[in-house]
Amino acid sequence: TSQTIANLNHWLYQNLIVLAQSPRWRAEAMCSKGMKEPYFRLGCHLVPQYDYVFGTATRFSERAVHHIIRYENLHHSFHKLMQVYGYNVTLPPKPKKKGTGSIAQNPLRQHSSLTQQNIDLIQTIYQDDFVAFG
Q1: How far apart are CA 39 and CA 45, in angstroms?
Q2: How far out from the chain centre does Cα 127 lie?
Q3: How far apart, in whole angstroms, are the C-alpha atoms of residue 72 and residue 92?
Q4: What is the C-alpha separation between 123 and 129, in angstroms, rounded?
Q5: Least confident residue range of 33-42, 45-54, 73-82, 96-105
Q6: What is the predicted pLDDT for the residue at 60?
């Protein structure tokens, strides 16, 4: 497990440092065009969510996304949003949990497994996310 944690931290650092050193772009437009900028590596999965919702201060200042659905309330919030727009669309039922272990018990998903260097990068890169979304 310690080797796996070390691999995770190495992978995370290698990808976060590129993101930290890249200029921020208008994410929702650029990701859809398949931009090859380092900021959009890994299929845009590391782009801060703030950049999707609000754009960036230097590129885009108008809010692009007006309905935010938090994962913790996905089913309920999605249902309410569909009602607002008059769509008869539902999500499939939540899958039943398999096994006895909790995701929180997985050492790779614990804050304590991250290096301080990665924690600092995460706090810097995603600062706007933490402020806007908690």
Answers
A1: 10
A2: 12
A3: 16
A4: 9
A5: 96-105
A6: 47
Copy the structure tokens of residue 80. Answer: 């309410």
Per-residue pLDDT of 70-125, as tens digits, reads: 888 899 999 999 999 999 999 998 777 665 555 556 666 677 789 999 999 999 98
Task: Give the DSSP H/E element, type plus range, for residue 76.
Answer: helix 74-84
Query: Which is nearest to 23 in space by CA: 63, 61, 59?
Result: 59
Q: Is 130 helix (H, G, I), strand (E, B) or coil?
A: helix
Q: Are 8 and 113 in contact (CB under 8 A)?
A: yes
Helix pair 2-21, 116-125: axis angle to 10 deg: 40
Amino acid at 88: N
Determine if residue 55 is left, alpha or beta; phi over 0 gives left, psi from -120 to 50 gives alpha, anything else beta.
Answer: left
Find all residues with CB under 8 Å of 93, minimum gap 6, and list them: none
Q: How far apart are CA 41 and CA 17, in angstroms?
A: 12
Rounded CA gap, 132 and 126, in Å?
10
